[in-house]
Amino acid sequence: MAGKYEHLFVRHMGDSSADLVNEGAVATGVPRPAHIGDAFALMRAEDVPESKIHMTYSWIGPTDEPSHWVNEHEHDYDEVLIWTGSDPENPHDLGGEILIDIEGETYSVTTSGALYIPAGLRHCPLDFKRVTRPIRFSALSLSGDGAYSSDEDVPRDASA
Q1: Which CATH number fits domain 23-140: 2.60.40.10, 3.30.365.10, 2.60.120.10, 3.30.565.10?
Q2: In sequence order, which residues have a C-beta less than 8 Å from that of residue 119 and are 6 or more positions away?
Q3: pLDDT tens profile 80-102
Q4: Statement: the pTM of the whole predicted model exceeds 0.90
């Protein structure tokens, strides 16, 4: 029996690949590598109109080949990137290595965890250097309107 709050649940996560304008084929025109799974919407205004956040997740499968995933960009809202390994016996071990740039500085990530990105902070590219076990990757956009957007959504003015 559905209650009065049923409309707040997401019971079927829709494909949110097209929402993420800086990632994979949407950003580069190159099909995503087979080890990078579909992006699913955990929460967004498109599915729950009252939502003030946009949250997705993807599974990243094992690969020996380094791969580029997300282009450099920034948002006018805060964002949290979350990555977790898949070994329940060692939850801190990511099972791979992620490289991410923040304002031009490259950081290596090999443990499960998260990154808080304040509004206006230029970040990415994000690349997978190696993945030995599946990694769950989530992005939580605190956009206020439940939508994902970035400065890469519109053509940039080269004279600015």
Answers
A1: 2.60.120.10
A2: 75, 76, 77, 78
A3: 999 999 999 999 999 999 999 99
A4: no
